From TrEMBL:
Residues 289-452 form the PRMT5 arginine-N-methyltransferase domain. Residues 29-280 form the PRMT5 TIM barrel domain. Keywords: Chromatin regulator, Methyltransferase, S-adenosyl-L-methionine, Transcription, Transcription regulation, Transferase. Its EC number is 2.1.1.320. One of its GO terms (biological process) is methylation. One of its GO terms (cellular component) is cytosol. This is Protein arginine N-methyltransferase 5. CDD domains: AdoMet_MTases. GO terms for molecular function: histone H4R3 methyltransferase activity; protein-arginine omega-N symmetric methyltransferase activity. InterPro entries: Arg_MeTrfase (IPR025799), PRMT5 (IPR035075), PRMT5_C (IPR035248), PRMT5_TIM (IPR035247), SAM-dependent_MTases_sf (IPR029063). Residues 455-617 form the PRMT5 oligomerisation domain. It catalyses: L-arginyl-[protein] + 2 S-adenosyl-L-methionine = N(omega),N(omega)'-dimethyl-L-arginyl-[protein] + 2 S-adenosyl-L-homocysteine + 2 H(+). It is an enzyme of class 2 (transferase).
Length: 763
C-alpha cells in the first residue's frame, strides 16, 4: 500500500483540554480522536435526585474548534453509564433523556460519527431511540462498539458463575454477533449503522471471525493491552492478531487505539507506527484488485452485448485481461492440433462476436504455433467495432480473415466451419444468452466440428452482506413495484461478504448441441449453514471448459488466477432470512426460456418458505431472443399500454415501429391525426411550454439528440390555462421519452376509441 497512509484514531476516556488532546494526538501521528460528548462522570438526573436542577453548561463549548474540525477530526462518544434498557423505570427514563441530549448535541456539532457502546442483548429501547434519531434526517454514522468476544466468554466458568444458565441463554451472553444482529434488525438494517469492532486479546475461531467480514465494519478498536513487547522493547501484535487486522484492512476500516500508553519509553506513537507498518506491508494487490479498485460492493446492471453495442472503452478494458485470451489461444491451439489434416488443407474458423479482434488475433497466433493453415470468418454486429476489424485486416491480418458485418443470428454462412469460437459468456455463464446464440449457429459447424467453449456451468452460493442488500434496496424506480430491486440480478465485485456455504453447480450447457434445443432449466440446491447468520441473497459464478482440460472460471475455489473480465453476480432476496448453525437451506432456481424471452426465477423453501422472486408473464417479460424478427428484437418491454424501445436516430423510425406494434397488438395508431412536438421545461417554475410541430415532421425525422419526442392523439385531459396558447388541445395518445441512462425510448400507448382493440402484443 505504498503511497497511502492508514487512517488511525486515538481514543480518549476523557479530556480536560480538547485542543491539547488534539495537538498531542496529531503529533503522535493520529488522524482523528474519539472523545466523550459529555464528561463520563457527569451523570445528569432528569427525573429525580439532588442534581435535577443543577446549573451550568452540559459540556465544553462548540467554539473550541471550527465547524470543519468538528466534522472531520472528532468521533463523539456516548456516555457509558447510560442504561437504556434498564428494568427500573426511573433509570431507564433518565438514561433516555441523557441519551437524546447527547445525540442532539452531537448533531449540533456535525460530527461524522457517533460511537455507542453495546453492552449486551438488551438493546430494544436503544434501537428505538437510535431509529428515532435516524428518522430525523441526521447525516452522521452510528458506530456500535462491540467486542469480538464478550467479557464472560473470556472468563473461566468457575469465576463467572454462569453454570445455572441454559444453553440458549449462555449463547446469547457469549455470542457478541447476536447482540449486533438483534440491534441492526430492530433498526431495519439501516445503512447509517455500522460496526466498531473491539479487537480482544482472546480471539474467536476463524469460522466465527469470517462472519464479521460480511458486516458493515467501519472501524476496529484495539487496546494497548492487546499488544506484546518485542526484543527491542516495541509494541507488536501476535500472528493471529496481525492476520485479522490485515483482513479488516481489505474492508477499508479505520483503526482506533485505546487505553493507556504501556510503552512510555517508546511513546504512544509507536502503536500508530506499528499499525501503519502492517498497512504498508500488506500483500501487493493482484490484477483483479487493481482492476476492481473502486468497484468493490458496487452493484451494476449486467452488460447485454447482444442488445446494445458496446463502446470502445468497454472493449479496451476487457482486452487488458492477461488471462482470458491466453486461455482462448491455448484452446484454439489444442483444437487445431486435433483437427490438423495430413494434406495440410485449410481449416475454417468462425469467430462469432469478434469485437475489436482479440479472439481473431489469438486464433492466428495459435495457428502459427500449430503450423496450420487457417481461414477465419470474423462476424461482428457492432458497426463501430467493424471499423477496427477492417483496419486490422488491412494492416495485419490480410486475406486470411474475412470481416462479416452482420448479426450472427442473421448471417448465412457460405461454408461450414471446422471450429467455431465465441465469447458470449456472462457472469452467470448463460445470462448473456450464449446457449440460444450458439444453438442457432450449430448449423454452420461440420459434423465433426469443435465449439470453443464446449461447456459451461453456473454456480450458486448463499451469502450474507448487509452492505449489498442495502445497496439493492436503494435501487428504486418510481415506475416499478417496490420489490423490483430485489428481483433483479446484479454484477458486483464481492468484498464485504460472508459465504454461508461452498458454491454448488447449477445449470450446465454443452456445445455443439445437436439435439432438440431446450434451454429451460430447473434445479434445487441444498446448502448447510455453518454458523448463525443472516441470508441476504446468493452469489452467482461460472466455470467454463474451453477445450479439453483448458478452462476459465470465476468460482472462488477454481478462479483463474489474474482474470478480471467477469465479476460475480448477486441475486438478492426481498427479506433477510435469519438462519441457525446446521440449518438446511433449500434453494430452487429456474431459467425460463420462451419463444421470445429468457429470465431467472428463484425461491427458498427451507428452513422457511419464501415467495418466488422475479415471476414473469412469459408474453411480455425477459430478454429478447435471437430468433425474433428484427422489428421485435428492438422491443425491450411490451404490454397493453407501454413499449420500451432501443435507441433510434429519428422519430420516423420510432413511428414506423409503433405502426408495426399496432398491427401486431390490435392497438389503433392513427398517423393522420398525429403530430410531433418538442417539450422544453423551465427550471425556475412549474410551467412547461409546448411548441407545435407539423405532422410531416414525422416524415422528415426529428433527431432524438435534440428533442424529447411526444406523439399525441385521442384522450381528453385537463389543461393548465397559464401555459402557452400553443398548447395542443388534443391529449397524448402516445408518449416518447428518451432516457439518458439506458438510451431507449419509453412509449406509452392509449386507445383512440372505446372500440379499439388492445390485446397482448404479438411481436
Amino acid at each position: 500500500m505504498e503511497g497511502k497512509r492508514l487512517s488511525c484514531g486515538r481514543d480518549f476516556t476523557f479530556s480536560s483540554d480538547l485542543n491539547t488532546s488534539l495537538s498531542k494526538a496529531f503529533s503522535d501521528g493520529f488522524d482523528f480522536v474519539c472523545m466523550p460528548i459529555v464528561n463520563p462522570r457527569y451523570k445528569r438526573e432528569f427525573i429525580e435526585g439532588p442534581a435535577v436542577k443543577r446549573p451550568g453548561a452540559l459540556t465544553r463549548s462548540d467554539m473550541l474548534l471550527t465547524s470543519q474540525d468538528w466534522s472531520t477530526l472528532i468521533v463523539a462518544k456516548i456516555s457509558p453509564w447510560l442504561q437504556l434498557d434498564s428494568k427500573h423505570d426511573v433509570i431507564r427514563c433518565n438514561s433516555e433523556k441523557a441519551f437524546k441530549q447527547e445525540l442532539i448535541f452531537a448533531s449540533h456539532l456535525s460530527v461524522p460519527a457517533i460511537l455507542i457502546l453495546l453492552k449486551g442483548t438488551e438493546c430494544v429501547n436503544m434501537a428505538r431511540l437510535i431509529n428515532e434519531h435516524i428518522l430525523r434526517g441526521h447525516n452522521h454514522q452510528y458506530w456500535m462498539q462491540i467486542p469480538l468476544k464478550s467479557a464472560l466468554d473470556q472468563c473461566d466458568d468457575v469465576i463467572q458463575g454462569e453454570g445455572h444458565l441454559s444453553g440458549d441463554e449462555m449463547e446469547w451472553k457469549y455470542d457478541t454477533w447476536k447482540w449486533w444482529n438483534k440491534l441492526r434488525t430492530l433498526c431495519d438494517t439501516s445503512k447509517k449503522i455500522g460496526l466498531a469492532l473491539e479487537i480482544t486479546a482472546d480471539l474467536p475461531p476463524s469460522e466465527i471471525m469470517d462472519r464479521w467480514y460480511g458486516e458493515p465494519v467501519k472501524a476496529a478498536i484495539i487496546s494497548t493491552s492487546v499488544f506484546m513487547t518485542n526484543k527491542k522493547g516495541f509494541p507488536v501484535l501476535s500472528k493471529e492478531h496481525q492476520k485479522i487486522i490485515k483482513r479488516l484492512f481489505k474492508l477499508d476500516v479505520q483503526m482506533i487505539v485505546s487505553g493507556a500508553d504501556r510503552h512510555p519509553e517508546k511513546g504512544i506513537k509507536t502503536y500508530q507506527q506499528y499499525l501503519d507498518h502492517l498497512w504498508q506491508t500488506q500483500d501487493p494487490p493482484d490484477n483483479i484488485s487493481r482492476f476492481a479498485k473502486g468497484y468493490e460492493d458496487y452493484l451494476q446492471c449486467p452488460l447485454q452485448p447482444l442488445m446494445d453495442n458496446l463502446e470502445s472503452q468497454t472493449y479496451e478494458v476487457f482486452e487488458k485481461d492477461p488471462v482470458k485470451y491466453s486461455q482462448y489461444q491455448k484452446a484454439v491451439y489444442s483444437a487445431l492440433v486435433s483437427k490438423k489434416k495430413e494434406d495440410d488443407s485449410m481449416i475454417v474458423l468462425m469467430v462469432l462476436g469478434a469485437g475489436r479482434g482479440p479472439l481473431v488475433t489469438a486464433s492466428l497466433n495459435a495457428a502459427q504455433k500449430a503450423e496450420t493453415r487457417v481461414f477465419i470468418y470474423a462476424v461482428e454486429k457492432n458497426p463501430n467495432a467493424v471499423v477496427t476489424l477492417e483496419n486490422l485486416k488491412y494492416e495485419m491480418w490480410g486475406d486470411q480473415v474475412t470481416i462479416v458485418s452482420t448479426d450472427m443470428r442473421e448471417w448465412q454462412a457460405p461454408e461450414k466451419a471446422d471450429i467455431i469460437i465465441s465469447e458470449l459468456l456472462g457472469s452467470f455463464g448463460d445470462n448473456e444468452l450464449s446457449p440460444e446464440c450458439l444453438d442457432g449457429v450449430t448449423k454452420f459447424l461440420k459434423d465433426d466440428g469443435i465449439s470453443i467453449p464446449e461447456q459451461y456451468t453456473s454456480y450458486v452460493s448463499p451469502l450474507s452482506s448487509c452492505k449489498l442488500w442495502n445497496e439493492a434496496r436503494l435501487c428504486k424506480d418510481l415506475n416499478k413495484p417496490p420489490e423490483a430491486p430485489f428481483e433483479t440480478p446484479y454484477v458486483v465485485r464481492l468484498r464485504n461478504v460472508y459465504l454461508l456455504d461452498q458454491p454448488r453447480p447449477l445449470f450446465t450447457f454443452r456445445h455443439p448441441n445437436k439435439g432438440i434445443a431446450d434451454n429451460n432449466r430447473y434445479d434445487e440446491l441444498i446448502f448447510t449453514v455453518r454458523e448463525d447468520t443472516v441470508l441476504h441473497g446468493f452469489g452467482g459464478y461460472f466455470h467454463c471448459v474451453l477445450f479439453g482440460d483448458i478452462t476459465i472460471s470465476i468460482v472462488p475455489e477454481t478462479h483463474s488466477p489474474g482474470m478480471f473480465s467477469w465479476f460475480p453476480m448477486f441475486f438478492p432476496i426481498k427479506e433477510p432470512l435469519h438462519l441457525k448453525a446446521g440449518d438446511r437451506l433449500k434453494l430452487h432456481f429456474w431459467r425460463v426460456a420462451t419463444d421470445k424471452n429468457v429470465w431467472y426465477e428463484w425461491c427458498i423453501t427451507e428452513p422457511r418458505v419464501c415467495p418466488i422472486h422475479n415471476p414473469k408473464d412469459p408474453h411480455i417479460h425477459g430478454l429478447p431472443l435471437p430468433t425474433m424478427p428484427h422489428e421485435a428484437r428492438i422491443i425491450q418491454y411490451a404490454d397493453d399500454s407501454t413499449l420500451v424501445l432501443t435507441d433510434f436516430d429519428s422519430a420516423k423510425k420510432v413511428f414506423l415501429l409503433c405502426e408495426l406494434y399496432g398491427m401486431a397488438s390490435g392497438a389503433c395508431i392513427n398517423k393522420e391525426k398525429s403530430r410531433v412536438i418538442s417539450k422544453r421545461a423551465r427550471r425556475n417554475n412549474n410551467t412547461t411550454r409546448y411548441y407545435r410541430r407539423k405532422s410531416n415532421a414525422i416524415e422528415r425525422g426529428l433527431s432524438r439528440r435534440s428533442h424529447n419526442l411526444w406523439i399525441r392523439r385521442g384522450l381528453h385531459h385537463s389543461i393548465n390555462t397559464n401555459q402557452s396558447r400553443d398548447y395542443p388541445t388534443t391529449p397524448p395518445q402516445g408518449r416518447f421519452v428518451r432516457s439518458s441512462t439506458d438510451q431507449r425510448y419509453n412509449v406509452q400507448l392509449y386507445p383512440t376509441s372505446a372500440d379499439c382493440k388492445t390485446t397482448k402484443p404479438g411481436v
